[in-house]
Each structure stands twice: as structure tokens, then as C-alpha cells.
């Protein structure tokens, strides 16, 4: 019912309390609005300490003072009387007397239980109440009026439209700079060779794929979708057989109208074409060697627009997103369930309790290694026990599968995952994973490809939640800081209550139009509603005990990004004969490769460090990870590791953005930038530059090495005054603690 009532119940001592005897109080109506007694009684009924020891049918309801929430040492007893219905028992001169619930609810005596309901708050909290969050959280930064509210939703819709336009522009530029064959090899939607079938049918032009391009292992029915990543409804560019002998309008935009086996039907976007007759005549001839490249898959954007409209039309969610309602803590899920995971720490337990009580919003800030996933699994288990249907979402398939299966394998189950407690584990609930058969996680794809009956818990990406046709009591949205407000609206529109979990000190959502995102639409729902000046600043809890990193690795991120709030939960040992955290200062040179950056000196040094870790530190390749900001550097490092180390192909190498959410025993970070001008690109941007460094450093457990040109990094002129000193501070920490190593490129024992 409320955090305050929960605290009062813990303080109340029935053995020393007395049944209330009204002296000067009467049951004459004094209130126009009845106190919501039903909820108070229901909440009390879930607590054994409020069961009367001598009267089995009595539910004890403590009384507080007339004008405060201080306990009075008295109580009333609720019971369901056979003749009189729902009544409250009181002491009438040594005898028991009763008053019916409806009469009691508008009486002056009802005022002495009002603070047990979250709709009412005392002027001052009582001495026994100790909670990190308020009993009732009003909006602290609401949108001011109806015009602002309408503007907010208009901006969400405009943001989606702008993202669509930006994606079209990006894909058009990508097609101009490459070939359909190369794009297909990169996994981009493209068909390198098509034959025109001539005359259109109903204005639709038909093309057939050359059989020689098709892997016959695939079902012909889905071959275009599975092999070429082209789908019905896609916006595409149709490329001519030869630029020299084709109308100037090519490549021309079209929409995939239908796909039948190897035949693709296109509706040409004639409105964008000037010389229509010339292009039409060209297309009506049977020709070979046309090509298609994807311009836009509109489905994710259409889903976002539909969800925004749905949220906008729901009074409760419209009020939540604009700050036109208060967040209270009156949900009964907490008392309808009991603790399942007895190994949670105090902050995790508190986060679970508050999340279950909150209505309709709660946020869990989970810095790296603090057990956010484990906490969310407990929230799901207890919500199901309380009778709630739960939707579990994240923006990426990897993040969803992390909650579903964690590190589970076919033979070993991760106890911190939903899988451990679902139908293939302890059997507490039925779990459905949307599109499980497409998952890259073996446990998910094999064990959750089918689901019998109605699931208690449904797991899906934010976008795939649009395919669901049911409503949910609770939405648990993990990695909520990586999803835009617009993407988050898709699952939000299907739930009554939302629990957001993430870390706004790590990477923000990806945006094609805002780099990095700055508007409310481009930011995450977590930031819009809670973090750093959000609408509700007091509806969340930060987990503060980290179990992942050696204390030397954790020190700088903790100091710089988390205000030294994190503490060690366990003793993580460093690798033998190695400092847990070191940096190598190397003055190589950067070069630009396809709009990305590469630094060959750092590539060689990273390969050398990785080789030493495998040879001397007794680590396997799967325990080592390499992180870099740039795709070109990641590609170069992969090639070098494959040539330089026998098992180098098994070392995970990826960009910072792709590595978020992962961890390794040992991490090597290559920062790449090295130039006389001190230009650090997006590493020096004030909004997401520090977040990238935070993500990179906090992936490591026992060893972290930073490879970089500290002259360039410390000279950054890209950041604001607040953030320009980030790398300077890190350099000072490394130098003052003896962790800085100077390296000359010519002495690296790895060939160029």
C-alpha cells in the first residue's frame, strides 16, 4: 500500500497495543471523500504480525496520531461479519462494538489511518520512517502546460520522421560509395543481379534473381529475405545494368510490393523522377543485371509512430511522460510475494521492494558489475508470484537474451537468469521469447522456439513488442538508457507499470540525426523521466556494490563517473605478476579509412600485449577482449591477432559501442587518435565522450590496459571545460601511481 505503512507495520507492537476506545470521537460523516479503506485492509492482511493472536478473523489496523503519522499504540480490528458485512471493531467501555466500513471511511476516526495510503502524505515523516525515496514523488520538472505536452509528442513524431530521412540519406550515400556485391558481403540488404521481366502488371515491375546467386540450402520461399535481407515493404534503390547506357535518373527509388520465390515486384516512386517516360520505356524492356540496395526498412519506424500515438491517447501514460501525475508506492505486488533470491545484497533487496511497490514507475540505476540483471530477475519472479503478467524488453537481442539465458549453456544453467526459473528450469513460470528461433543464443533458440499456453513472462526487443496482441501488468525494460524515448514507447504502450533499468553514465541511445542525442526525443526514457534533471528525480535507487572489477580498475570510473559511491563487493585478484591497471603511451600516427580511423602502431602493440596475456598469464582466448572506438581499428586488430597468435581469431575484438554489456577477465583498449592538433573526435565530445571511456574501462575484471597517444588525448580541444580534463586527470592518476609505460613503435616485437 505504501512505504510508510510498511515501516509502521515493522515498528508496531501488537502485544503492547490497545484496541481503540473512542472518547470524544463519533462516527458522524466529516469527509466528502471516503478514505480508500479497502486497499489499507488488503495490505494489512498480507502481514502475519497484524493477525490477532486470539481472534482468527480479525485483521489489525494500527492507528496513527490525528495530525501526524506517529503510531498511537492503538488499533482497530477489521472483520467480515456474517450479518453486518465489512466492519471495524472498537472498544466500547469494555465491550466490543462495530461500525460498518462505509460509515467508518468518512468519519473523523478514518483520518487516523489515512497516511497508510499513498494518496495521503504527512507534513513531516515520522521518526520510524527511514527510506531513500519519498512516500509520494510529485513531478519535479513537469512539462508546464497542455501546449508543452502536445509539443513533446509532436517532437517525438518529428524525431522518428527525421531518423527515417537520415537513414535514407545514409543508405543512399553508402550505395553511391560502394557496389551491391560489396554491400551484400557486409550483411547489408542488397541483390547484386536481377533480370527485368518487362511489361509491368498493374503498375508494378517484376524482376527475377539469377539462380546462380542463390544458396540452395535455403528454402526458396524465403530466399530473398534470408540471403539478401530484402523484405516486402522495404524502400529500395533500383540500380541500372550500366550507368553509361541508362537514363540519368538511376538509381531510382521504389518500394518492394511483393516477393514470390525468386521474383521481386517493385512499385516505382514516380513522384521523385523527372524524365518518367524515358525511365518507364527503359524498364519495360527485358534486361539483365539490374541491382537492388536497401534504402529503408520502414517497419521499426512505423512501429514507433504507432506506439507514440497509442501512448499519447492513454491518459495515464500521457500524464506520466509529461509529469502530470505523481508516482506513488501503493502496489500490492510486494506483499503478495516473498523474497526468492536470498543472496541479494541490501541495495538490491531495497530496489526490488521499491520496484514492486511503485506505481506506475520505478528506475534502477545499475553501474557496471552491481548485479542489475540479477535484481531484475528477482523483480520478474516476484511480480509473477503476485499474479502479474510481465513483459521483459531491451533494445537489442543480445540484451534480451542476457536476461533470458545469461551465461547458460545446454548443460549448465545460470542461476541469475530467467531461464533458471522458467519452464525449462525450476518451473516457476512460463516464459516466451519472441522470435526465439532467430536468436544467436543456443539456449534461447533451442529451448524457447516454442511455448505452450499463455506465457506469464514474455521477452522481446522493444521493436518486436509491437507484434504482441496482449496487455501486461508490468514492463521491465533493461538497458533502458540505450533506447530512445520513441523506441521505448513500443513496449510502454502495452503495460500499466514500467520498471526502467540502466546506467546513464554509459552510452546514450544511437541516433542517426543527433550525434550525440540531446533532445528529449533522442534521449532515453530513463533520462527523460529520472536521471539528471528528469521529470521525477526521486523514483529510483542506485546499486552501489560492484562485484566485477579489481579495485584498481574501478577506482577511476568510480571517482570520475559515480561520485565515489561504489564499493567493492568481493576481492577480485589481479593477474599473477601484473598490475591490474596499466597504460602504454605510444606516439604512433592515425590514418582515415572509409570515414573511420586506424593506428597501425597501436594495432601491433595490442597484438603484443594480447600474446603476452595468453602466453604468460595462463588465460584462454575467450577470456581476453580488445576494445576500440573505431571500426577500422577493430578490423585491423582482428587481422593482426589472427596472423600473430595461434588462437587469435577467438579473441573478442569490437568497438566500444558493441562491447557495452559484456565483460572479460582481461581487456586491452586502443584509443587510436594520434595527431599534432590534439583532435580526438567523438572521444572528446562532452555528452558521450566520457561515457565511452567509462564503458571501455569497466568491461575488465582482473586486467585493463589502455593503449594511446597521451599527448593527443591530453591536448583535446573538443570537450567542454567540464570534460576537457578527463584524459588529463586519467593521465595524472596513471603517472602518480606508477602505471604508465612509455613505448617506442620501432621496438614493438610484432611485424608491420
Automatic annotation (TrEMBL):
Which domain of life does the UniProt lineage start with? Archaea
Q: Does the keyword Coiled coil apply?
A: no
Q: Name the InterPro entries for this protein.
A: Coronavir_polyprotein_1ab, DNA2/NAM7-like_C, DNA2/NAM7_AAA_11, P-loop_NTPase, SF1_C_Upf1
Q: Report residue spans for region: Disordered.
A: 126-149
Keywords tagged on the record:
ATP-binding, Helicase, Hydrolase, Nucleotide-binding
Domain (DNA2/NAM7 helicase helicase) ranges = 343-409, 455-510
Instruction: Reply yes or no: does the keyword Oxidoreductase apply.
Output: no
Which residues are in the DNA2/NAM7 helicase-like C-terminal domain?
Answer: 523-709
Q: Read off the CDD domains from this record.
A: SF1_C_Upf1 (cd18808)
Pfam family of this protein, just one?
AAA_12
GO MF term set: 5'-3' DNA helicase activity; ATP binding; hydrolase activity
- Give the family from UniProt: Belongs to the DNA2/NAM7 helicase family.
Q: What's the protein called, per UniProt?
A: Superfamily I DNA and RNA helicase and helicase subunits-like protein
Q: What's the source species for this entry?
A: Natrinema limicola JCM 13563
Q: What is the lineage of its organism?
A: Archaea, Methanobacteriati, Methanobacteriota, Stenosarchaea group, Halobacteria
Amino acid at each position: 500500500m505504501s512505504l510508510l505503512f510498511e515501516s509502521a507495520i515493522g515498528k508496531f507492537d501488537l502485544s503492547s497495543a490497545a484496541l481503540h476506545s473512542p472518547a470524544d470521537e463519533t462516527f458522524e460523516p466529516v469527509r466528502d471523500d471516503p478514505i480508500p479503506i479497502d486497499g489499507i485492509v488488503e495490505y494489512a492482511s498480507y502481514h502475519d504480525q497484524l493477525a490477532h493472536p486470539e481472534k482468527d478473523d480479525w485483521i489489525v489496523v494500527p492507528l496513527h496520531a490525528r495530525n501526524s503519522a506517529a503510531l498511537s499504540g492503538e488499533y482497530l480490528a477489521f472483520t467480515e461479519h456474517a450479518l453486518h458485512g465489512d466492519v471495524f471493531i472498537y472498544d466500547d467501555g469494555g465491550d466490543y462494538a462495530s461500525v460498518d466500513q462505509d460509515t467508518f471511511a468518512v468519519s473523523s476516526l478514518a483520518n487516523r489511518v489515512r497516511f497508510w495510503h499513498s494518496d495521503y502524505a504527512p507534513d513531516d515523516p515520522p521518526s520510524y520512517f527511514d527510506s531513500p525515496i519519498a512516500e509520494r514523488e510529485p513531478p519535479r520538472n513537469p512539462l508546464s502546460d497542455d501546449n508543452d505536452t502536445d509539443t513533446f509528442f509532436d517532437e517525438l513524431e518529428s524525431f522518428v520522421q527525421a531518423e527515417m530521412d537520415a537513414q535514407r540519406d545514409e543508405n543512399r550515400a553508402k550505395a553511391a560509395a560502394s557496389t551491391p556485391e560489396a554491400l551484400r558481403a557486409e550483411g547489408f540488404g542488397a541483390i547484386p543481379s536481377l533480370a527485368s521481366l518487362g511489361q509491368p502488371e498493374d503498375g508494378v515491375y517484376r524482376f527475377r534473381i539469377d539462380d546462380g546467386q542463390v544458396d540452395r540450402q535455403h528454402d526458396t520461399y524465403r530466399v530473398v529475405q534470408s540471403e539478401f535481407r530484402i523484405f516486402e515493404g522495404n524502400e529500395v534503390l533500383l540500380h541500372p545494368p550500366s550507368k553509361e547506357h541508362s537514363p540519368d535518373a538511376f538509381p531510382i527509388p521504389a518500394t518492394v510490393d511483393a516477393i514470390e520465390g525468386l521474383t521481386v515486384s517493385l512499385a516505382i516512386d514516380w513522384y521523385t523522377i523527372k524524365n518518367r517516360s524515358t525511365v518507364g520505356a527503359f524498364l519495360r524492356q527485358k534486361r539483365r543485371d539490374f541491382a537492388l540496395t536497401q534504402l529503408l526498412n520502414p517497419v521499426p519506424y512505423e512501429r514507433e509512430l504507432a506506439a507514440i500515438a497509442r501512448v499519447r491517447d492513454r491518459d495515464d501514460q500521457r500524464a506520466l511522460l509529461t509529469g502530470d501525475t505523481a508516482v506513488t508506492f501503493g502496489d500490492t505486488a510486494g506483499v503478495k510475494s516473498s523474497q526468492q533470491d536470498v543472496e541479494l545484497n541490501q541495495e538490491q533487496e531495497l530496489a526490488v521492494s521499491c520496484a514492486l511497490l511503485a506505481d506506475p514507475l520505478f528506475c534502477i540505476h545499475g553501474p557496471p558489475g552491481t548485479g542489475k540483471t540479477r535484481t531484475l530477475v528477482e523483480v520478474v519472479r516476484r511480480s509473477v508470484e503476485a499474479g502479474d503478467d510481465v513483459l521483459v524488453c531491451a533494445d537489442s537481442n543480445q540484451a534480451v537474451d542476457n536476461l533470458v539465458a545469461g551465461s547458460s549453456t545446454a548443460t549448465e544453467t545460470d542461476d541469475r537468469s530467467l531461464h533458471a526459473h522458467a519452464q525449462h528450469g525450476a518451473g516457476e513460470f512460463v516464459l516466451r521469447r519472441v522470435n526465439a528461433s532467430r536468436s544467436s543464443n543456443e539456449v534461447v533458440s533451442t529451448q524457447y522456439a516454442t511455448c505452450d499456453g499463455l506465457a506469464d513472462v514474455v521477452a522481446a526487443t522493444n521493436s518486436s513488442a509491437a507484434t504482441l496482441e496482449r496487455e501486461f501488468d508490468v514492463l521491465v525494460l533493461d538497458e533502458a538508457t540505450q533506447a530512445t524515448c520513441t523506441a521505448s514507447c513500443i513496449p510502454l504502450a502495452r503495460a500499466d507499470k514500467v520498471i526502467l533499468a540502466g546506467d546513464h553514465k554509459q552510452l546514450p541511445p544511437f541516433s542517426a540525426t543527433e550525434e550525440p542525442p540531446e533532445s528529449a526525443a533522442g534521449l532515453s526514457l530513463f533520462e527523460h523521466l529520472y536521471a539528471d534533471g528528469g521529470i521525477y528525480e526521486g523514483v529510483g535507487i542506485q546499486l552501489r556494490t560492484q562485484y566485477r572489477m579489481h579495485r584498481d580498475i574501478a577506482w577511476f570510473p568510480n571517482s570520475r563517473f559515480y561520485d565515489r559511491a561504489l564499493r567493492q563487493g568481493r576481492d577480485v585478484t589481479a593477474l599473477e605478476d601484473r598490475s591490474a591497471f596499466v597504460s602504454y603511451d605510444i606516439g604512433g600516427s592515425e590514418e582515415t579509412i572509409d570515414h573511420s580511423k586506424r593506428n597501425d602502431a597501436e594495432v601491433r602493440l595490442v597484438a603484443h600485449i594480447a600474446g603476452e596475456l595468453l602466453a604468460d598469464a595462463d588465460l584462454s582466448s575467450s577470456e581476453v577482449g580488445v576494445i576500440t572506438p573505431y571500426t577500422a581499428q577493430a578490423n585491423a586488430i582482428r587481422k593482426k591477432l589472427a596472423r600473430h597468435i595461434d588462437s587469435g581469431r577467438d579473441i573478442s575484438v569490437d568497438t566500444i559501442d558493441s562491447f557495452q554489456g559484456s565483460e572479460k577477465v582481461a581487456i586491452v583498449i586502443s584509443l587510436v587518435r594520434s595527431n599534432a592538433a590534439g583532435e580526438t573526435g567523438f572521444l572528446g565530445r562532452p555528452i558521450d565522450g566520457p561515457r565511452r571511456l567509462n564503458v571501455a574501462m569497466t568491461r575488465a575484471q582482473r586486467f585493463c590496459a589502455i593503449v594511446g597517444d597521451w599527448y593527443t588525448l591530453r591536448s583535446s580541444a573538443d570537450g567542454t571545460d567540464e570534460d576537457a580534463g578527463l584524459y588529463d586527470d586519467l593521465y595524472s592518476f596513471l603517472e602518480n601511481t606508477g602505471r604508465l609505460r612509455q613505448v617506442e613503435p620501432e621496438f614493438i616485437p610484432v611485424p608491420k
